[in-house]
Every structure is written in structure tokens, then in C-alpha cells.
Write a structure and sequence with these properties.
Layout lengths: L16 H17 L4 H13 L7 E9 L4 E8 L4 E6 L8 H10 L2
Antiparallel strand pairs: 1-2, 2-3
Length: about 110
Amino acid sequence: MSSYDIRDKGIKKDSETTSTAATISYEVENALEQGGKKSDVNKQINRLQKGEKFPSNLQLVDAFYDPKTSSSGVAFLDNSTGKVVVVFAGTNFDNVFFGEVSRDVEQW
């Protein structure tokens, strides 16, 4: 299991779906970058849901992190609408700053 604890970043049980997915995408990236697996992320999201710090209608579908490019993304199924929300994290300043930024710059 990852040593990174996903933080709620102010998300509540009734937070809007797209904003929630965008906000949590950086936390998911941090967890995966620290060696966590998708199953670890799912457990932590379930914990946030039980604590009413994440919408219960969102179900993790998939998440990835590519250490070579520092690209990451996450997909959630909104059980209320049946739609999938896909989010890609941008430059993550919570990650090791020079490593993240240098990989972003190398892509250009």
C-alpha cells in the first residue's frame, strides 16, 4: 500500500462531480507516484466517502501515472447519471517540484 494518504482537499459528500474529479486527480497522482496501486486509491476514496468527504455517487473506474512523462489521469463513474468523468492532472506542485516541472518542460 502507498504511504501517501489522499487528502480530501475540501471536497464534501455533496460536491459537484466534475470539480470533485478535477480536485482529487492531483491526490490520486501523488498516491500513484508514491508507489500506490489503483486498489490503494480505491480504498482511500471509499474511506473518504464513509467520512462524508467525497460524493458517494462517484466510483473509481481507472487511474494511471506515467513516471517517464509525469502524465496522470483518473476516471470516475457517476452512478447518478451513468456518465464517466475523465480527468488528467496538470503540473502538480504537491509533487517534487523540480522533478515534476522538469518532466513537463522536457515534453515541449
